[in-house]
From TrEMBL:
Pfam families: NAD_binding_10. Residues 6-178 form the NAD(P)-binding domain. This is KR domain-containing protein. It comes from the Bacteria. Transmembrane segments: none annotated. It comes from Streptomyces galbus.
Length: 281
């Protein structure tokens, strides 16, 4: 049986759909923090909260494979993922697929320490692993793309650094492949879109897709933080956004080697198609 955590989340829901194309319903379990929000899932649903180790033990009972979708509570994730790994070991899981972040072993990325710490916990457990080091989602830019249509402007402190985002759907498909196909155990994949882009290129892509004039204005990190605060963002969000953009300016998300398209067997969604899809949604 395959258990997928974060089962109500965007990535997990798409991964469940892809796994179900290959594996029968009886083989898939969605482990969710809020079962009441999962009634539309066409698989068995079990309660599992990363902060409640007992719930993980029950949710993983009988499982052979685990898709451990990284949690969302920054600063708590190593503890949470450790609880999940311990429950997986207790349940006799033989393979953990974990959603990590790009080049976490060498990167200055603000999220790297929690992901490398989590990868180490999984490796030290002795269970077979697959690390999916996912680059950014196109969808992370949905608010900026919509705002660009209104204002003609994309603002950030990413400089002319490139990032190789892909559609969340493509990463979800890769997770399903890593679970269901043979040959992916004890492998680490740096997953990214086929083509990297800069914020200036995002602006010109939005302009091409919509016909509106859109430009990118690069600003200093301090000004970026001030603007985010003025827009009502919390301190954690402000530090994460401006920190990531600083990482991008230094090239932390630029790497792409075609691993994602090879894994899923087709090209990743082009940025322009992602912009069209986001604006149509
Ligand atoms: N590569 C990227 O660009 C990128 C961007 C954003 C996030 N991420 C990472 O990738 C993961 C998947 O992305 P996503 O877009 O699917 O995120 P998402 O839609 O926010 O889904 C995250 C899921 O994790 C669940 N969760 C959070 N805390 C939990 C806990 N204590 N116990 C059990 N479940 C918990 C949430 O449950 P509820 O439904 O109950 O809230 C939610 O269903 C994220 O969690 C994050 O670690 C990556």
């Amino acid at each position: 049986m395959i258990v997928i955590t974060g089962g109500n989340g965007h990535l997990a829901r798409q991964a469940i759909t892809h796994v179900r194309k290959i594996a029968p319903r009886e083989r898939v379990i969605a482990a969710v923090r809020r079962p009441e929000a999962a009634t539309d899932l066409d698989v068995e649903v079990r309660y599992a909260d990363y902060n409640d180790p007992g719930s993980l033990d029950s949710a993983f009972a009988g499982a052979d494979q685990l898709l451990l979708v990284s949690g969302t509570e920054f600063g708590r994730r190593i503890t949470q993922h450790t609880a999940a790994v311990e429950a997986a070991v207790g349940a006799g899981v033989s393979h953990i697929v974990y959603t990590s972040a790009p080049r976490v072993d060498t990167s200055d990325l603000v999220f790297a320490p929690e992901h490398i710490g989590s990868e180490q916990v999984i490796q030290q457990s002795g269970v077979d692993y697959t690390f999916l080091r996912n680059n950014w989602y196109h969808e992370n830019y949905a608010p900026a793309i919509r705002e660009a249509v209104r204002t003609g402007l994309i603002v950030g402190n990413a400089g002319d650094g490139a990032l190789a985002s892909a559609a969340r759907q493509d990463y979800a498909e890769a997770a399903a492949v890593a679970l269901v196909q043979d040959g992916h155990r004890n492998k680490t994949y740096e997953l990214a879109g086929d083509v990297s882009w800069t914020y200036a290129q995002l602006a010109s892509t939005v302009a091409d897709v919509t016909g509106y004039a859109v430009t990118y204005r690069d600003i200093e990190p301090a000004e970026r933080r001030g603007r985010l605060a003025a827009a009502g963002a919390g301190q954690g969000e402000i530090e994460a956004i401006s920190g990531i953009e600083e990482n991008i300016s230094q090239g932390a998300l630029a790497h792409t080697d075609g691993s994602l398209s090879r894994l899923i067997g087709h090209p990743t969604e082009a940025l322009a198609d992602g912009v069209r899809r986001i604006l149509a949604g």
